[in-house]
Amino acid sequence: MSQDDIFAEEQEVDYTPDKRLIDNWQVVLSTPAGRAVVYDLLKVCHFGLSPFSGDNNMTNMIAGKQKVGEEIMSMINSASPASYHLMTKEAQELENYDREQSDNQHSDSI
After folding, report:
1. Which tens digits make up the pLDDT trace of 5-33?
2. Is there a contact between 106 and 52 (Cβ–Cβ < 8 Å)?
3. Which of 18, 29, 96, 103 has the highest Cβ tally under 10 A?
4. Can you give the residue range of the structural domain that contains 94?
5. At residue 31, what are phi and psi to the nearest 5 degrees?
6. How far, in Å, CA of 45 to CA of 58, rounded?
7. 20 Cβ partners below 8 Å, 6+ apart?
8. In this predicted model, what pLDDT tens digit does every residue of 31-90 receive, in sequence order?
9. Residue 96 pLDDT
10. Mean pLDDT throughout 85-107?
11. Residues with Cβ < 8 Å from 52, sequence gap 6 or more?
12. CB 42, CB 69: distance < 8 Å
């Protein structure tokens, strides 16, 4: 399907920019790779952590990043509310796997 076909289809069904954005987020959140990227973005944004660092400039910088994280979470909740729980579960499983692999490599070298 060409870009023109997609645009024409959107015009026929009164496709709004908000609906298009939510649909795009649903596509991203429908795959493990997409959820992994979004989870990483939330980590970069210090989502769910305290912004206070003891340094006013650093605290303000972290607070700004967290605002972006809040916007990302808002889109997740609009597009696919169950995805956040799923992506945190997948991330934990991957961290556990990586830790096991690292431990196995370390014990093999001893």
Report:
1. 666 665 666 678 899 999 999 999 999 99
2. no
3. 29
4. 3-108
5. -120, 150
6. 13
7. 10
8. 999 999 999 999 999 999 999 999 999 999 999 999 999 999 999 999 999 999 999 999
9. 95
10. 91
11. 59
12. yes
CB 51 within 8 A of CB 63: yes
Model pLDDT, residue 103:
86
The residues, ordered by sequence, that sit 6+ positions from 100 with a Cβ below 8 Å of its Cβ are: none
Residue 94 confidence (pLDDT) above 90: yes
Number of domains into which the chain is organized: 1
**What is d(CA 81, CA 48) in angstroms, rounded to the nearest whole number?**
17
Three-state secondary structure string covering 51-98:
CCCCCHHHHHHHHHHHHHHHHHHHHHHHHCCCHHHHHHHHHHHHHHHH
